[in-house]
Amino acid sequence: MSRVFITGSADGLGQMAARLLVDAGHRVVLHGRNAERAEQALQAVPGAEAVVVGDLSSIAATVDVAEQVNQLGHFDAVIHNAAVGYQEPRRIATVDGLPHVFAVNTLSPYVLTALIAQPKRLVYLSSKLHLDGDASLDDLTWEQRAWQGTAAYSDSKLHDVLLAFAIARRWPRVLSNALEPGWVATKMGGAGAPDDLQAAPKTQVWLAVSDEPAATVSGEYFYHMKPQRTHPAVHDVAVQERLIEACEALSGIRLPDAD
Q1: Which of these is catalytic: 110, 124, 153, 221?
Q2: Rounded to whole angstroms, what are the CA distances from 58 to 100, 111, 159, 211?
Q3: For residue range 148-177, what is the model confidence (pLDDT) as tens digits?
Q4: In sequence order, what E strands does 42-143 have?
Q5: Beta bridge partners of 28
Q6: Rounded to an integer, what distance in angstroms lies between the CA atom of residue 22 and that of residue 92?
Q7: Distance CA 55, CA 243 (A)
Q8: pLDDT in tens, 187-196
Q9: What single-letter DSSP state applies at residue 56?
């Protein structure tokens, strides 16, 4: 039995993954961005151990989420599922003055990774759209560029793979991987999404708890439990480190060394 924390698990793929894990006998801690969402998460996943609360668009609230998780004790795996989509028509600034998409999709998994006690496994949800991300990492906060919601989302999903691969390299005792769940009919994906919704949460569950040799790897990228091609930049150590340095500068939080 494993103990797993899942961000953004009040609905969508996070909730589906939580149900699969609970049904398989694992201990699961949920997350909701506010008290109402947290209660929804608990009601939707009977058998979940607990829920933590915090808006991941805020650096301070994300720090608090990490503290809540650490107070609950050690976890075997963390699934970084929480994300916002590509529909934002303009640069929506957070309380920290950052683009909402960047804050939730890029910076919050960095902050949580840095502050939650290092688990055995880390799983980061990305997207096939990461292939269109800007690997230059110029203007991460969209202050010079004209806003494009899809581009901002694609950038953030590239950042998630870069972070997963950077952790795999920096923390050799942690299995750190990324995946794309497919374009599925969640609230984010929309009703017309063509991929298999029931298959979508299975890869993150597999990476979080399976002892199969194919799942006990690190620094890999998957789609439906099969290795998938990535943006070539994700293997570039200099690009990985540039993202880590930028996230540290923006958050004020340093990524620790390996345990």
Answers
A1: 153
A2: 9, 11, 18, 35
A3: 999 999 999 999 999 999 999 999 999 999
A4: 50-53, 77-80, 121-125
A5: 4
A6: 36
A7: 22
A8: 555 555 445 5
A9: T
- Are the beta carbons of 202 and 181 closer than 8 angstroms? no
- pLDDT tens digits for range 179-220: 999 664 455 555 554 455 678 899 999 999 999 999 999 999
22-75, pLDDT tens digit by residue? 999 999 999 999 999 999 999 999 999 999 999 999 999 999 999 999 999 999
CA distances from 119 to 46, 182, 225, 244 (A): 24, 26, 21, 19
Query: What is the distance of C-alpha 44 from the center of its chain?
Result: 20
> What amino acid occupies position 180?
E
- Sheet of strand 3-6, all strands in order from the earlier edge strand to the far edge: 50-53, 27-32, 3-6, 77-80, 121-125, 175-179, 221-223, 226-227
157 given a catalytic annotation: yes
What residues pair up with 53 in beta bridges, in sequence order? 32
Tell me if residue 244 falls in helix, strand or coil. helix
Name the 3-class secondary structure at 163: helix
Predicted structure pTM score: 0.95
Q: What are the residue ranges of helices labelled H in the chain?
A: 12-23, 35-44, 59-71, 100-102, 108-115, 149-170, 202-209, 237-251
List the structure tokens of 248: 């540290």
Q: What is the three-class DSSP state of 204?
A: helix
Mean residue pLDDT of the chain comes to 94
Catalytic entry in 157, 221, 223, 226? 157
